[in-house]
Structure prediction request, 146 residues.
Amino acid sequence: MYLLVFKVKLQQWFVANLISDHDVKRAILISSLSDETYILLRNLCVPKEPDTEKFEELMHKLNIHCAPVQSLFTAREKLYHAAQNNTESVGEWAARVRSLANQCSFSQEMLETVIRDILVVGMPDGKIKDRQNFLDCLNLLKVKKL
Prediction:
């Protein structure tokens, strides 16, 4: 998860600073890493050194190492068993459901339906859930407004 955030921020930094040269990207990547992550990257590059690898290859090595391999069914099981915590606001609950659903490889149309269903079914009984049960045509935008 943190690698994904780091990659997006790094790519946007490259865009904002008009950096397209891959040698410069590699240098910025290496200098942006914590000591611990740099050591990991260095170990992943053995017998080469990170500063001799292409930027894309370094990112690929980090992706392969850091990306957890999770079964599609395990991801869906986590989603289907999710329930709103007592301390979670509706907005926090919705964000968590979207995060879990994002890992499940649903089509866009199916994704919206599943998110809507999990949001409502996973809520504790109360006013918000009761309100949802009275709506005939529930869509994701209505749920997001709560």
